[in-house]
Amino acid sequence: MIKAQQKPIAEIKALIAPYHRILILGCGTCVTISFAGGEKEVGLLASSLRIASAMEGQDKIFAEATVQRQCEWEFIDAVAEQIQQADAVLSLACGIGVQALAERYPDKVVLPGVNTTFLGMAVEHGVLVERCRACGDCILGLTGGVCPIARCAKNLLNGPCGGSQNGKCEVNPELDCAWQLIYDRLARLGQLDRLAALMPYKDWSKDYDGGPRKIVREDLRL
Amino acid sequence: MKVGSNLEKVLTSGYFAATGELGPPKSADPGVIRHKASLLKGYVDAVNITDNQTAIVRMSSISVGIMLLQLGLEPTIQMTCRDRNRLAIQSDLLGAAAHGVKNLLCLTGDHQRFGNHPTARGVYDLDSIQLIHMVKTMRDEKKFACGEEMDVEPRFFIGAAENPFADPFDYRPYRLAKKIAAGADFIQTQLIYNVPKFKEFMKRVCDLGLHEKCYILAGVGPIKSVGMARYMQTSVPGMDVPEEIVARLKGVPKDQVRKEGIKQCADIISEIREIPGVAGVHVMAIEWEEAVPEILELAGLLPRPKV
Fold it and tell me: At what angle do helices B128-141 and B86-98 cross, to 10 degrees?
């Protein structure tokens, strides 16, 4: 899922400074799972901002709402009235949700309350890790189910660099070296011979180097 | 003979090669290059010029390579995948070849996080093995990475690096094989202080017959101080510095440490020379280029052959 982290409170306060009536809008999907922008976080942030506003002698008004998915029009429209009443919407959804709001409500100021961080998973409670870079050309079938694009700091395709030590990455010793994981997995699967083949130049045009991506499914269009 | 560089000639003639290294300045001062070149001239078969080493911005490797040619030294330029995509790399290599540069070391590059611009975007369009393959394809097939042909190809004696001490240790010889299959003509290894472990690595390399397909130069370097030895032992990723290396430097009076470091380096070279499959040494005396002649003299590698 998409993982996000709430922005520092000082940055949020600076973003909302010019506005009086602010709707804090959460999202019930990915950011709820990553404890960054669900109903609970909306409530906590609203409380913090109300206290800060009062202490600083302001009279800002904070409304709260959370929709099932901010990245779909019909779910956003469920809170259309609250959006209309606000001077600005502080979205706690990922960047997709923020942009969906901006597109749906062209006259409304929309501000991001979180930093969208990566596509990943929780490996333990409270520990989120990156697993996919959405490069558009999946090679997991060649690398033992471990992604060197998302998990190697240099996205190497032909084996580990010289900084792999004790199974850890030199860039962040708290992270496993992706190529050590790939080596171990392929060894277990009896597929180490795969490492001998030269992995060709990657087609980055399928990644963001090809410009913003779009999928059109003619079979599904109405 | 693929390109006829001095380094290639020395190696193909069967001499034990000795290459040096020159770190460009963090400035536009050509005087630094002239000075460092004067310290190395005549003592090594070729001089590597680092490419933004440890991700710190320095004068470009190719431009310093051109200066060395003018000064009568043979350069081995270095090219990393960190700062350039395939367009920039090929373009720069065409230019380097046009200026007469003949040796090239292909590297992935130290991650930008370790340098002085840690917030920069790393490129890594290619990895080092793909870079080797691309340079070989340019040289031997006269083709760019996209498949288009060129009239006059850049001819490089292609080098690659290998760290025998990184993990997974069992995979390292196979990774070397991959680099050779991709087109590496010579290898320069990471700094070697753990000679027994390097010996084990070389045994595996020879069992695979890799020493017959490629010239393997062992990386060596003098240690200036006990503090530097400790730092390399504990803080440099991929380095293996055994305790006895540090102990030897600790065992002499403080004003003798540099001298001992030079002797230690020469002793390591002598040990390495005995290891089957090693074709030469690459002496990396970082910011201590003046130590190189003394090390090579002590190791019995001077004068250098005229080929």
Answer: 50
d(CA B268, CA B264): 6
A118: β partners: A3
Q: Which of A170, A180, A196 sits opposite B111 (nearest CB)?
A: A170
Contact at CB, B108 and A161, closer than 8 angstroms: yes
B149 pLDDT above the threshold of 90: yes
Q: State the DSSP code for B58.
A: -
Give the CA count within 13 Å in the CB-facing half-sphere of B24: 30
End-to-end CA distance of chain B: 13
Which residues, 6+ apart, have CB-to-CB distance to B285 below 8 Å? B20, B21, B221, B222, B291, B292, B295
pLDDT in tens, B20-48: 999 999 999 999 999 999 999 999 999 99
The answer to pTM > 0.80 is yes
Domains and CATH numbers, chain B: 6-298 (3.20.20.220)
Nearest to A180 among B127, B162, B168 (CB): B168
Contact B168 A164 (CB under 8 A): yes
User: Of B147, B298, B113, which is closest to residue B220 (Cα–Cα)?
Assistant: B298
Task: Tell me if B127 and A154 make a contact (CB, 8 A cut-off).
Answer: yes
Q: Which of A146, A149, A152, A164 should be substituted to probe chain B, the one whose Cβ sees the most B Cβ atoms within 10 Å? A: A164
Structural domains of chain A, ranges and CATH numbers in brackets: 2-117 (3.40.50.2300), 133-207 (no CATH)
At residue B232, the pLDDT reads 94
Q: Is B241 on the interface with A (CB under 8 A)?
A: no
Nearest C-alpha of chain B: how many angstroms from A198? 7
What is the predicted pLDDT for the residue at A48? 98
Q: How far apart are CA B268 and CA B223, in angstroms?
A: 12
Residues of chain B contacting residue A180, judged by C-beta atoms under 8 Å apart: 167-168
List CB contacts (< 8 A) between B81 and chain A.
154
Residue A102: the pLDDT is 98
Residue B5's alpha-carbon distances to B9, B101, B302, in angstroms, are 6, 9, 19
Contacts of B12 (CB under 8 A, 6+ apart): B1
Average the pLDDT over B126-153 and give the result: 98
- Whether B134 and chain A come into contact, CB under 8 Å, resolves to yes
Give the integer Cα–Cα distance in Å for B172 and A161: 10
Least Cα separation, residue B79 to chain A (angstroms): 15
